[in-house]
Design brief:
The complex is a heterodimer of chains A (about 230) and B (about 230). With about 230 residues, chain A is an all-alpha fold. Helix content of chain A is about 75%, strand content about 0%. Chain A has helices at about 10-40, 45-55, 60-70, 75-85, 95-120, 120-130, 135-140, 145-160, 165-170, 180-190, 195-225. Helices cover about 30% and strands about 30% of the residues of chain B. Classes of the chains: A mainly alpha (about 230), B alpha/beta (about 230).
Chain lengths: ~230, ~230
């Protein structure tokens, strides 16, 4: 039991802080993007959809590598942020948030897009005819009527960001208190053969992930009964 | 006075078709729009509502709704639109559906009273019957006191008793608000009961334009599916 006293929970806090921030930022970005994808008749739509879905199929190391190259202090973007705002985008927490936003983008966009596409078009038109702008229609009519999709998007994005590993390791390294999130901490414990700590961390991750998914399914089940 | 002169290429199930309509409708008229499915009735209604683009011109009194590339957006046309499938907002109660259009509680209560819905005002749309939903939809369409009320087969999904009841309510509201109404309908009895003018479309063109009673006399020799 003695090793338990040395267990740090900072990596978990870091994971949840990262996931929380990423979810908020992605929600703000993805609502307009998913709306546009659901309504557009543009021939370019498949290209945008493919680009959005890319992080699902790419190995996280590939994604991490390109983000690292794009944001490093030798790159134009890295130089711009460093000189303009004094912000470094790799091997720190900020970099992790940026990388996570790319990594988890499809998990926010796809359920929202599916939800928006399932809405009765006449209902949206009824709102336009009533004099309401697109933004007001999205906030007051569209979003409240896709609650299950909204819930899925937010929770799965959060859970997926908590679970990310490859991208985090590539872009963030493993700096305690800065970029050493739970999944990276587990990897390091296994490397130094501290299986007991790895077991405890992993068990916590399994339980949290299960509870998160369970809450989504229970919520969506209830919504279906109400008739949304 | 509504002056319609529009043109639009349609890609229907029976190939390409030109919707070409040139009409003048008087203020306060109740116009029934009939014709086979695919003849362009719904599209015409949607163009009037600003929900679909078209070439040509649309003038309503002294307002310009469409002129060349300039089209007034739906939001600014102040029309009422009643959809065949009601299109109510499921997340809002009956009264909230009405107040969403305009925050005028007095008018909302008045409309719900005319349509005998006052007791149901806090219910969600999903708990209502088809007839009740369509009455809510009708009330919602009247909330901004529209100059032009457009109805796309509003009664076709209802049973005969409910249809008769709603026809009366539509007529009451049409008169009380002195609105100009255009309604797509297939039912000759409904047309004769409600409208004072009937326009029949075929393949995108007006093939018949008459006062309702005349058309009804001819209905036996009409080949149109009205």
């Amino acid at each position: 039991m003695s090793s338990l006293e040395f267990l740090e929970f900072e990596p978990f806090l870091l994971s949840f802080k990262l996931a929380g921030l990423t979810t908020i930022i992605l929600f703000i970005i993805s609502v307009p993007l998913a709306w546009w994808l659901s309504q557009t008749k543009s021939k370019m739509k498949p290209i945008w959809e493919s680009l959005t879905a890319l992080p699902i199929v790419l190995p996280p190391s590939v994604l991490g590598f390109y983000i690292l190259v794009a944001l490093s202090h030798n790159s134009p973007i890295g130089v711009f942020f460093d000189e303009t705002f004094g912000i470094k985008l790799v091997f720190n927490f900020t970099g992790l948030v940026v990388a996570s936003c790319f990594y988890s983008l499809p998990f926010m966009v796809q359920p929202l897009q599916g939800g928006f596409e399932s809405i009765n078009k006449n209902m949206l038109e009824a709102s336009y005819v009533a004099g309401k702008s697109k933004i007001e229609t999205i906030i007051k009519v569209a979003l409240p009527n896709i609650k299950p999709a909204l819930m899925t998007a937010i929770i799965v994005t959060f859970a997926h960001t908590v679970g990310e590993f490859g991208v985090v390791l590539m872009v963030g390294g493993s700096i305690p208190g800065e970029t050493k999130v739970a999944s990276v901490a587990i990897y390091e414990m296994v490397e130094i053969m501290d299986y007991k700590a790895a077991h405890i961390y992993s068990a916590i991750m399994v339980v949290i992930s299960f509870l998160v998914l369970l809450s989504v399914y229970i919520f969506n089940g209830k919504q279906k009964k109400i008739g949304f | 006075m509504i002056k319609i002169d529009i043109n639009k290429k349609l890609h229907g199930s029976s190939g390409e078709m030109d919707l070409n309509v040139n009409l003048q409708i008087n203020q306060g008229d109740f116009v029934a729009l009939a014709g086979q499915s695919g003849s362009g009735k719904t599209t015409l209604l949607r163009i009037l509502a600003g929900l679909e683009e078209a070439d040509g011109t649309l003038y309503i009194d002294d307002e310009v709704w469409l002129e060349g590339k300039k089209a007034l957006p739906s939001q600014k046309r102040k029309i009422g639109f009643v959809f065949q499938d009601y299109a109510l907002f499921p997340n809002m109660s009956v009264i909230e559906n009405l107040l969403f259009v305009k925050k005028d509680k007095e008018l909302a209560n008045h409309l719900l009273e005319i349509t005998e819905l006052l007791e149901l005002k806090d219910r969600l749309p999903n708990s209502l019957s088809g007839g009740q939903k369509q009455r809510v939809s009708l009330c919602r369409a009247m909330m901004n006191k529209p100059k032009l009320l457009l109805m796309d087969e509003p009664l076709s999904a209802l049973d005969p008793v409910m249809r008769t009841k709603l026809q009366q309510e539509i007529l009451t509201l049409h008169k009380e608000f002195n609105t100009t109404t255009i309604m797509v309908s297939h039912d000759p009895n409904e047309i004769s009961k409600l409208s004072n003018r009937v326009i029949v479309l075929e393949k995108g063109k007006v093939v018949k334009d008459d006062i309702a009673s005349n058309l009804l006399v001819e209905k036996t020799i009409l080949s149109f599916d009205i």
